[in-house]
Amino acid sequence: MAMIQKALITGFGDESKITVVQEQIRAPAANEVQVEVEFSGFSGADINMRRGTYPMQKKPPFTPGYCFVGRVSANGSRSTKFGIGSRVACLSIYGAEAELINVPEKYLVSVPEGVDSQQATAVILDWNTAYGMVMRAARVEAGDNVFVHGLSGAVGYAILTLAKMRGAAVYGTASGSKHADLVEAGATPYAYSGKEWISAMQATGGVNAVFDPLGFESWDESYSILRKGGVLVGYGLNLPALSGTGPRPVLPAIIKLLARNLAFWTGKRTKFYYISRDSKHFLSDLEALFDLLRTGRLSVPIKAVIPLRDIQRAHREWSQGAGIGSILIQVRE
After folding, report:
1. How many whole angstroms from its chain centre is CA 213?
2. Using an 8 Å Cβ cutoff, are 148 and 207 in contact?
3. Residue-wise burial string across 58-83, b where 16 or more C-beta atoms lie within 10 A, e elsewhere
4. Are 327 and 303 in contact (CB under 8 A)?
5. Which of 83, 186, 268, 331 could form an SS bridge with 37, CB 3.0 to 4.6 Å?
6. Is the pLDDT of residue 53 over 90?
7. Count of C-beta atoms within a 10 Å radius of residue 85
8. What kind of fold does domain 2-111+301-330 have according to CATH?
9. Per-residue confidence at 317, pLDDT binned at 50, 70, 90?
10. 2-111+301-330 and 125-272: identical CATH topology
C-alpha cells in the first residue's frame, strides 16, 4: 500500500472541518484503475458536502473531489482498457482531492492529445452540467432570451458561452465588479440584490429559459420572469452557502419547484437538473466538450488553481475574489 496526501472532511461545519491528512491507499480491485491525480475540480458541491447539505451525501469522515484529470498508475487484474501513464478524466463524485484514487474502470474517459489538463478538468463537471442544461433541459435555440444567475461562476459562465454559441441573447445576475467582463463576453448583467432584473425581464415579455443555481425563494422570483412556453431549470441550491446562512432542507424546495408543472395552463415549465455519470448522455457530452477544446473552438477561463495543502483557502474563497470561471485544486505540485 502507498502513502498519500488527501483532503478529509472530518465533520459538517465551517472551513475548519476540512484538512489534509496522510493515509495509506490499497491496491486497485480487479475492476478498478488507480490514478495519480493532477487536478481536481472544485465547485459548490464541495461547499455543500462540507456543510452537510448535499443531497444523499456520505457522512464524515470522507474525501471530497467531484472530478479529476490524472494519469493511470496501476490497473486491477480485470482492467485492461488504459495503459500505464494514460491521461484520463473521471466524474468521481468523491475522492478526487487525493494524490491517488481507485475508481471503476468504466467511469474513466481518455483525455485527447492537445487538450490542456486544467481545461479538461473544468469541463468534466462545470461545463458538462451547463452543456446538458443548455442542449437538453432548456433546448436553447437561436433567437431565445435566456437568464442566468451567477453569470461569473463556473457553471454560469459556461451556460453564457454555450447559449451564445447557440445564438441566444443572454441576461443574468453577477456582482458589480464582474459586469464589465460579462458585457465584453456578450451578456447583459444585473445585480442580484437590487431585484431590478425582475421588472426589467418582465418588461420585455419574459424569457425563454432561466438557469437558477440558488434555489429556495430565488426559484419563485425566476419563475416570475418566464414567458409562456418558457422553462426554469433549477440546480445547485447554493443560496444558503452563498449567503452564509444555516443549512436548509432541500427536498421541499425541489418538490415545490416541480409541483409548478401542475399549473399547465400557464404554459411555463420547471425542471431540476443534476449530472449523472451513468446517464446515456454523459460520455457523449464530455467528448463533445473535449472536441471543442481540442479544435480551439472553446477556451475555458480558470479563476484560480489552489494547491491541495491550501484546501481551506479554496473553501473560503469559493464565492469571493476577482476573476471569472472555474476553481481547480492542484493535487500534485
Report:
1. 10
2. no
3. eebeebbbbbbbbbbbbbbeebeebe
4. yes
5. 331
6. no
7. 9
8. Quinone Oxidoreductase; Chain A, domain 1 (3.90.180)
9. confident
10. no
Task: State how far the Cα of 182 lies from the Cα of 74, in Å rounded to an integer.
Answer: 44
Q: CB within 8 A of 226, min separation 6: which ones?
A: 206, 207, 210, 232, 268
Q: What is the per-residue pLDDT across 124-166, written as a single tens digit (0 to 9) for each?
A: 999 999 999 999 999 999 999 999 999 999 999 999 999 999 9
At 124, phi and psi to the nearest 5?
Answer: -60, -45
Domain-by-domain residue ranges, the chain? 2-111+301-330, 125-272
C-alpha cell at 98: 487525493
Q: How confident is the model at residue 302 (pLDDT cuts 50, 70, 90)?
A: very high
- Element (H or E) spanning 83, and its range? none
**If you count DSSP H runs as helices and E runs as strands, how many of each does the chain have, helices first?**
11, 15
Residues 6+ apart with CB under 8 A from 29: 76, 102
Residue 167 is predicted with a pLDDT of 98
Q: Convert 109-130 into a string of H (helix), E (strand) and C (coil).
A: EECCCCCCHHHHHHHHHHHHHH
Q: Is the pLDDT of residue 247 over 80?
A: yes
pLDDT number for residue 318: 82
DSSP H or E stretch at residue 200? helix 196-203
196: pLDDT confidence band, cut at 50, 70 and 90?
very high
What nine digits make up the cell of 69? 484529470
What is the Rg, in whole angstroms, of the alpha carbon atoms belonging to the chain?
A: 20
Q: How much is the average pLDDT of 5-22? A: 96
| Residue 42 cell numbers, joined | 472544485
Domain 125-272 has CATH 3.40.50.720: yes
Please name which of 33, 58, 54, 34 lies closest in space to residue 45, comparing C-alpha atoms.
54
Phi and psi of 317, rounded to 5°?
Answer: -100, 5
CA distance 98 to 21: 10
pLDDT mean over 240-263:
91
Integer Cα distance of 78 and 66 in angstroms: 25
